[in-house]
Amino acid sequence: MTLIDPATASDIRDLAGGAVPAPEHDIALFLDFDGTLVEIAPSPDEVRLDRRVPMALDALRQTLGGALALVSGRPVSFLDAALEPYRFDAAALHGAQIRLDGEIRAQAEVPDTMRSALRDLVRFANSHVGIIVEDKRISVALHWRLAPQLQDEALALMRAVAARMGPAIRLQEGKSVAELVPAHASKGSAITQLMQLAPYAGRLPVFIGDDITDEHGFEAVNTLGGLSIRIGDGETLAKLRIDSPTALRRILLDAAERGSLTTSSFSQG
To answer: I want to staple 61 with a disulfide (CB 3.0 to 4.6 A). Which of 49, 68, 139, 195 is the partner?
Structure first.
C-alpha cells in the first residue's frame, strides 16, 4: 500500500540511483522546521504553519513509538509556540539545545564574546535597511533576505566576527542568513546522539531538511544507513528530493490519517 497519491509522487525525485533503504524498517523521523514544515518567510517572525500539522505530527509520533524529533535552528521555545499545544523532542539551535521526553538533556554554554558580537550585528542592522538580527541567546543569526544586495557585506561582517570569537564558535551559513553557533553543535551530531537513545535507538533514521544547514544532518543519516531527503533545489548529500514543503505536508498528513509511515512513504508513487 502506498501513502502517496500520483500528484505527490511527481514532486519526489530519487537522487541516489534507487539506494533507498528498505521500507520494512521501523523509522525514526527527524524534521527541520523552516523551509521544510513551513515555507521560508521574508523574516523569521512571519512564518505560518498549517494548523493541521501539529496534530498530524503528534499522531505520527504515536505511530512511530515516540521516535519523532524536530531538528531546527530555532530555539525550543519557538518550536513549542509554533506547534502548541504539543511539545516534541527537539535538537534546537542547530543541535546546541537538545530536549528529550520533555527534559533539556544538553544545552551549550553562551560564550562571553556572544554579547559583543550581538552588539556589532545590531549596529550593522540599524544602519542598513532590510537587515534583521535574530538573537537566540545561545546563537545569533543575521538575515538579509529583505536586502539581498547586502549579502557580500553581511557575510564579510559575520566571517570577521566569527574569526574574532575564535574556535569556540562556528559560522553556519544558510539561505540569506548566517549564524554564530557553538562550534561543537551541528544537526548531524545531534541526530547521531539521539539515535543512541530510546526511543530512537535501533530504528532507521530519516531526516528531512532544505538548506545548507541541514547537510551535516544528511551526512550523519547517510553514515547511519538511513534516508536523507532535501526539500527543494540545491546541491546536496541527500538521497531523495521533495519539491516543496507543500508536497511534504501532503505526505505527512496522509500518513497520519492512515496511521503508517515508512521509507516507502517518501519514495514511491
So the answer is: 68
